[in-house]
Amino acid sequence: MVRAVFDTNVYISALIAPGGTAEKAYLSAINGNNALFTSIAILTETARKLRDKFLWEDDKITAALRHIGRAAHIVKPAVKLKLLKDDPDNRILECAKEAKADFVVTGDRHLLHLKEFEGIKVVTIREFLDIFNSAIA
Question: What phi, psi does 70 have (nearest 5°)?
Answer without folding.
Answer: -80, -30
